[in-house]
Write a structure and sequence with these properties.
Blueprint (H helix, E strand, L loop, with lengths): L3 E8 L5 H9 L3 H9 L3 E7 L4 E8 L2 H9 L2 H10 L11 H4 L11
Antiparallel strand pairs: 1-3, 2-3
Length: about 110
Amino acid sequence: MTTRRVCFTLQVDPARLEDYRARHAEVWPEMRAALSEAGWQDYSLFLREDGLLVGYLVTEDFEAARSAMEATDVNRRWQAEMAPFFDGLDGGRPDSAMQPLQEVFHLD
């Protein structure tokens, strides 16, 4: 199976940017381990000053990687703690709102 690059966006509440950054300065070791075990490789988050969050990862199967995380207790706890930082979730979890963008170009 080949790897796939995945990019997605979410919207962080601009009033919570510093708190959001602080939370990600110390991601729980068990969360980091779960992501790796679930197939999330080269996972990065980028945050713009207006709250635009851009996520990027490489995985063999994004839906399988997302499902593997959804099955973990650590992910449920992390998502519950992080949800208040985001705008536009309508009561949902941030990981459920991740919709991959269509890749239109990649320089190999």
